[in-house]
Amino acid sequence: MDNRGDADATPFLSIFAAFSYGIASMAMVFINKAVLMQYAHSMTLLTLQQLATTLLIHFGRVTGYTKARGLNLETAKKLLLVSLFYNANVAFALASLKGVNIPMYIAIKRLTPLAVLIAGFFRGKGTPATQVTLSVLLIAAGCLIAAIGDFSFDLYGYSMAFTSVFFQTMYLVLVERSGAEDGLSSVEIMFYNSFLSLPVLLFLIIATGEFPSSLSLLIAKSNSLSFFMLVVLSLIMGIVLNFTMFLCTIVNSALTTTIVGVLKGVGSTTLGFVLLGGVQVHALNVTGLMINTAGGVWYSYAKYQQKKGKQLKTMTDLEAHKK
Fold it and tell me: What CA dihedral angle connects 291, 292, 295 and 301, to 10 degrees?
């Protein structure tokens, strides 16, 4: 589990990190949706996922399974915002899944590239390429059309999903910078993120009155073996998703993580029509989702071409310098 060499990622590690994150992210959407269909206390579920992550990494460090360094107060201060934004992203995403069907949830989350580009512009990264801009606008247009045709429209669910997009954007930018600047491994950032989130999450579930009734309900429902296994799977996948997301962002970039999220959404959207229900098929809704998906694929292709062009220019400049 020790990945202190993340910064010097090999091509295999880069591909593995992106692929693993895509699979874990897609699986997690369906697992969380399945749990929340039977257990509506999303904040308690998130708290349990973060507690499981913290305990697992601590146990791994104590037993020598991972070489992750211990808690450092200065590092914890630097990563406090990362933890807050990440958990806000997940909390609002879980809340949205209670009212939004999976295809529409994926369509809204695909708006993250637009938010990332806007954040990049304000950070001084300049104006994006024409293809990138057009593909992002296509994603947004598809999302709007799909929403108009969504007969199961839930204002609360939509609001939660859009808020999640904002916090995911802030989180991706911050975690990329903190991982590069502090030289932390993906496991170490994951530990800080989970550990720092616990006091905030515990305060929230108590302040909102969700706890302790949510825990009593969880214990009562765990008499069902199928539900118990589903919750255990959710806790395990929460750890896997955290790890692969941090790993992908560190060895690649925040943008790569976003692109992978867009591409895995193609499979999630398709499966969302046939798994777990909640989708009322309508021509306008399907058309919007297709446009949204096409925009996501185009965006990924445009970013790949952009990166390839930069690499070619760098090689040309080096050759010219040698001459």
Answer: -120
